[in-house]
Write a structure and sequence with these properties.
4 strands; Arc Repressor Mutant, subunit A; 12 helices; mainly alpha; 266 residues
């Protein structure tokens, strides 16, 4: 979204125009979502009427705006509705604060990153944070719409994740694309969030079972063996994991994959 926009109507019009062929009938869909006639939407876009605060909040949902984008849009609506100069000045001050926040999101990112405890809790709260971060390495998946379609996520979720990445320096927004920042995130191996990370991706693995059997690999073996062979197999698996990591580190990013390994005694 354009944080230099001085008028909320421009943001709505940009949203409508970005729909391409789907732009046709968009005003009717906006009116239906707001619970008003499309003629009122036309009047609002024409400048003879203004959105109410409630309508502005609802329209943010319809346009799938992120939190900071919603804040900016609503502040523009409030400025347009302000009844005197003192109120408009206050709104302009709020808009400047939001622009400053948006500007900070574009700061340069570093190669590796160590997040705070709170940031780690957010990052490992759902599988799609990690998936989106890795997907940004692929040039064709550096826009909100492409990521949402690839991972079957809503635009709002993807926007909020990317906003979090910008705020924490995990990516930067340049020329309409989101560029991945640090390739590695440091977290202690004994951190409880590591378990959350494992659960997220085991759950995702369950969802994938049977979807593309010819392309994917799933294997389960329940067996008994000697204690010495158990140790030997564990060491072989460690070596295999190390080899996988080496291949990934030196590979040109073309596809997003998940590699889960479990080996434990009962």
């Amino acid at each position: 979204m354009d944080f230099l926009a001085k008028e909320y109507r421009k943001i709505i019009k940009d949203f409508i125009n970005e729909g391409g062929p789907k732009s046709r009938g968009q005003m009717s869909r906006i009116g239906e979502y707001l619970g008003v006639h499309s003629s009122l939407v036309s009047q609002i876009l024409g400048g003879t009427r203004d959105l109410t605060f409630d309508q502005a909040c609802t329209l943010c949902e319809f346009m799938n705006l992120s939190t900071i984008e919603s804040d900016y849009f609503i502040a523009l609506v409030q400025e347009a509705r302000a009844g005197n100069e003192a109120a408009r000045k206050r709104c302009r001050g709020e808009l400047e604060k939001i622009r400053a926040r948006a500007s900070k999101l574009k700061e340069h990112v570093t190669k590796d990153k160590e997040l705070t405890s709170l940031q780690n809790a957010t990052y490992y709260s759902a599988w799609y944070f990690v998936a989106i971060k890795q997907l940004l390495a692929l040039e064709e998946f550096q826009t909100v719409s492409a990521i949402a379609q690839k991972l079957n996520l809503s635009l709002a979720i993807v926007k909020n994740v990317l906003q979090f990445f910008e705020e924490t320096g995990l990516c930067k927004h340049e020329k309409g694309k989101y560029i991945r920042g640090p390739t590695k995130i440091h977290i202690p191996s004994d951190d409880p969030l590591v378990g959350r990370h494992h659960i997220n991706w085991r759950t995702k693995g369950f969802e994938q079972l049977g979807m593309r059997p010819e392309e994917e690999l799933f294997f389960t073996l329940i067996a008994t063996l000697s204690s010495d062979d158990k140790l030997r197999l564990r060491e072989e698996i460690r070596k295999a994991i190390k080899k996988v990591v080496q291949v990934v580190d030196s590979s040109e990013p073309k596809e997003l994959i998940c590699f889960n390994v479990d080996f434990f005694g009962l």
